[in-house]
Amino acid sequence: MIIKNNITLKPFNTFGIDVNASEFVSVDSIQDLKDVLNTNPSDLLILGGGSNMLLTKDVNALVLQINLKGISVISSTENSVQVKVSAGENWHELVCWCLKENFGGLENLSLIPGNVGTAPIQNIGAYGVELKDSFISCEALDIQTKELRVFTKEDCKFGYRNSIFKQELKGQYIITSVVFELSSHQHVLKTNYGAIEAELENIGIETPTIQDISKAVISIRNSKLPDPKLIGNSGSFFKNPVISSSKFKILKSQFPLIPHYTVSEDSIKIPAAWLIDTAGFKGKTFGNYGVHAKQALVLVNYGGASGKDILKLSIQIQKAVKFIFDIDLETEVNIL
Ligand code: EPU
Description:
This protein is an alpha+beta fold. Helices cover 25% and strands 28% of the residues. The strands form 6 sheets. The protein has a 5-stranded antiparallel β-sheet. The protein has a 4-stranded mixed β-sheet with strand order 1-2-5-3. Strands 13-19-18-17 form a 4-stranded antiparallel β-sheet, covered by helices on one side. Helix 4 crosses helix 5.
């Protein structure tokens, strides 16, 4: 375990922003992690896959890359298995491993960037499935006491792109491993998300397997979302806002085609992508950064943009959406 000084974080964030960290260390065991914390660093930045952050300035802190590895089946019943996965495993590689073993539950979450240990923090989700649907528990290290604690699903208080680790326990724990429950036989497929059905039909599959669903999801994602290895981005930059039904009625009279999903009797979710698109930002470029041409919710760094540039664009978008629709867009990405 070597603490390096003054290194660029460009390879460690999917936006590809070039800022420096005053100190950087990668840990591949719980003991190393405890040893680093025992040096009592004055400031810490925990790094998973770096897929949900916008770095707007140099980081004057110890950047701690969680590189804990390992995937193992810890128990099984006739139709299911419990799998324990270390926090530093890449999310999509876990999904591929599950598909190879024919374990079902994560296939709709194919190709989501990031690592397993950061996935519960924002309860990652896509195509009608969220992490919480297969989540059993996670183990996390208390940064103060250096003790490991197990969090059950209830403890985690999962919500839409939300959990206790983003709220009352923010910055207090480092997730070290996650246990999932997956089906080993009689998989329950979730194909009701419109685009999946259409894609399966497109590729001529009538009775899909979990592997087919993954293929369909990969194909949909590739058609809309830029590959961070080629174009810097952090997926959805904003959350889909939830508004009251009275506000929705007013908007609907002004914008009859506004897409929406009913969340409860008095709350309606509006796709942020539609708001940004309608505000005229889709595909707009400002030199080396802009709004993705195929999905208005994704801000992109074409190479060499600064975090401040992208932050400035995000504020411009928030102001336009507020002015036109009177809706506050909240960022999904963490701004640092
Ligand atoms: N739309 C537009 N313009 C666009 C794109 C979309 O008007 O440029 C409208 C369309 O009406 C479309 C609707 O927005 O029907 C919703 O779009 P989409 O189905 O692509 O999903 P989303 O709400 O934009 C969410 C997640 C994505 C996830 C997809 C699929 C959030 C913030 N984003 O996007 O998650 O992949 O659903 O389930 O909830 C991520 O978190 O990084 C991410 C990519």
